[in-house]
Amino acid sequence: MATMNRNVATAVSPHLMVMRQPCEGRSGKAIACFPLGELDVEVRATTDSVVVFVRREGRGGIALRAAYVVGAFSCVALDAQSDETARLRVTSALGVHVIILRAGASALENLGMTVRFTPSAPIVLPFMPRDLYPLDEKDDPLGAVGAVEAAQRGLNVGVLYFHLDQPRFGDVLYVQNLTAMNDYYRTTGTTPDGAVGGTWPELGYMLPTPEPGVVPPIGPLPAGVEITLSDAILVFRHDAPPHERDSARRFIQMLGVAYKTLALPGVEFRNWVDRAERTLHDIDHAPEATIEHYGHRYIHPYTNAEYPDIMVQMSIIAAIHDWGKWNGTPHALETQLKAGLEKFYDKKIESLRRYLPNVGTDKDADAVDSWYLYHPMLNLGFLALDGDETAKTLLLKSIDFGIKAAHHFAYKWPVQYKVTDFTVITDVAGADGRGQTDVGGIYAWVMLQAFELTDDKRFLDEARAAIDAAMGLRFSVNYQANLTAWGAAACMRLWRITNRIVYLEQSYVYLASFFHNCAIWESEIGHAVHYKNFMGVTCLQDAPYMAIYECFDSFTAFERYLADSGPDLEPAARMLIGEYCRYALDRAWYFYPDALPPEALSSKQRETNGHIDRNLSFPVEDLYVDGQAAGQVGQEVYGAGAAFIFATRSFHRIDGAPFRIYCDQFVQSMERTGDRALTIALAGGENCKAGLSIVRAKRRKLGKTTVTVADGDIIRPHQSSADRIDYVVPANGHLILTWKES
Question: What three-state secondary structure class fits 530?
Fold first, then answer.
């Protein structure tokens, strides 16, 4: 929410009124009770529900409906199993509910609740009310006053984050582990789109149910088959945060606690080096990839479709540049593509334009999305900081126009405008009524690059002004995922330069908004069974899909964020970033058409975006959490930089060794400590895992390798072959790798 409003009930449903009476009177049958840190947990059976009460003495609490049952039922406590605090069985004419409660052992009080249901007959469940109610000190939901900061957006993480102010109960983070309900969604033909949210004080999860009178496309829940209806995680903190930055930090911290309770999906080794080599060949040789104008080569945004533009050109150039550095030899294609950059420069407005001068009349040559003006500058900045004087010149002669635009819009950019006179074409996005709220983040990063290049303080001042202008947006800072990630990186860099703690804190606002839009669950709905989506982020705040470009550009931004961080960084932020990047290396593989079965690819693409060619190593733009066919938007040539970015960050060359090292967490440092010994420091989250692989170099043989942790314990290989040895190692700390030639 852009502003924090204190919520009180303005209208109530019959379900709230029915829930309110037993809450206030503490009526019904007491089934179980146990302490949870400084909280008290009590389970009671009411007239139509089994309710879990979590209270802080004298300061209110929450009521969590574990089961909603129409008709008579019985509820009894069973013996809890080893990892459980309480287990209950609810028996009714509908069938049997089993409710499992787990009190979390963490610095923050947390409670897990799993509800499984076995129908007594084939059944289509009716409407289910939401399951979470804040309570005042008298257990009255109508007396509770607080604010909802964040709720589930689309098919992203099933999250609700709110604070209860009167009484002063504190912060509550509620997460539904949607992965656990895949069987339910597939059986009923439903999806959990926006399933977690609500209107104060009726909050929480609303189980998706088929529309009344409509036969489900797959069928009812079968008799005698247990299915999970809820897998909730609640995390609690005392008191409310003093400002949005601390609220965001707490969100990240509490989300980290919830994340650690999940059964995480596995990840696989991905040969991004091979993918990059294939991609480079296809960019260079496939006629669908490039086009010639003015005697120069330019990149097609999509396969044989759309006009060349500066963002696309610079994205591919920067990625190929990194590939050349990693290989030790620049690739000729980088020089070829750089040669045509000057044609994008307009001397009249003294800036880069989006399109070449000969762009077709079906395009508005003067129109530019706000972020499109700055992203090419970002990649020019990377080249310039690497010693490319031509890139430096082009950046510095364009940057004043970028500053002029920022001043004109007072650091609050619209969606699209004309570069000739700043006339607004599209002011705000229809989904939230806001402009491109996170452009200030990427703008700040570009300004910091210019500051590093020139030592001119006006660029530092511009970066600070842009970040300062975004303060107050709370969880609405995200417009486009990669821009939000660059905003976080800019804040971290500003903190390093200025030593002002406010910028470290503000980086958490960007991170909170980013992970709010993250699908922290693995969907198996529809075609999603053929690919992975865990930790994927929807590309825009209202987009229905994950996009490859935003995926790898966010990965790059987070690499910079972590490089600038230090021990003061909130550990949960380090963990979530590391986990996002780890899963990106695995998940992004499925954007490539040859990694998907033909039936999972859309037969039709957006009208102007060409076609999909499974023989080309270019990714499709779009994968869908709800299992729609992939590639409806098109096959991105401009997303082809993903392979180079992932290869150069995850694979590490070792001079003289018969192998390369692959690691799916960022390597903080790597030091050669002997002829055949290496010390590796990883910078992932505490208690997290990393995949470490020893990958045979071409025309070499793998010998014996040994991996030990700092205390000397030897880590056994997870699997091994003549070409690769895989280890699962701690994501944080030091490793020692030794080897013998075969």
Answer: helix
